[in-house]
Each structure stands twice: as structure tokens, then as C-alpha cells.
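Hi U.,

Before I forget, here's the chain from the pilot set. I'm dumping it here mostly so it's searchable later in email.
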Amino acid sequence: MAESRSKKTIRKPSRFGRHPIEGYSVHTALWIEKDGQLYIGGGRARLLEEIHRLGTIAAAARSMNLTYSNAWLWVDSMNQLAPSPLVVRTTGGVGGGKAIVTEEGLAAIQTYKDLRDKLGDAFDAEVSEDGKF
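Structure:
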């Protein structure tokens, strides 16, 4: 019988993962809250992008391995916290229902990405060449 070899999966570092000492990486999470409730974070921003790309909440949920009910809860929560809806839905019909990411939704994605990039730049500035923070 052939010997089974376990493959060690090495996760590719994110933008925040760079560190000058081999083997070390820095990780962080960024999210925005409104009145103490999660408004948008990495997963929700990605969900909005997938809805924009695929046109439905169901397809976006499948692409992210989320249940439709979780995806819908995320969308509903963001819509309630936002000044105006980030996603609007149209009901079924011949081709089924559609979901459209609004201008407010696209702006929320961009704001999240801009903040994430600024955080990454701040991390990059803090990591010196000798590997100390």
C-alpha cells in the first residue's frame, strides 16, 4: 500500500501578511460598525461585490459557500444600517429574482477598500527592515 503523504497547506499572506523576517506575517481584521452593530467588514464587502457581479443574492451566497439565509441576513442588516439601501431586490418571474447593488452599496464597498488599504499602508510603515515593529 502506498504511503499517504499529508500536504501542508501554506496560506498565501494577505496584503497585511508581509513581514521582513521569513516565516512571520501580520494579520488584522477591519470592520465598520454603526451604533455598535456590524455594518460592513471583509465578508460583507465581498458579498456585495459578488451580488454586483452575479446579479442575485442566491448566486453570490453560493459563490462564497454561504447559505442564502445568512447572505440575506447580512444584506438586510446592511440595508437597515445604511442611509439608503445597499442592495435592492426584484421579485421572481421568468428568470427569477434579481438583486442590484445600488450606488450607496458601491460607495460602501469602495469606502471599505480604501480604509483597508490605508490600514495596510500604516502596517507597512510600522514594519522596519530589521523585523521589529
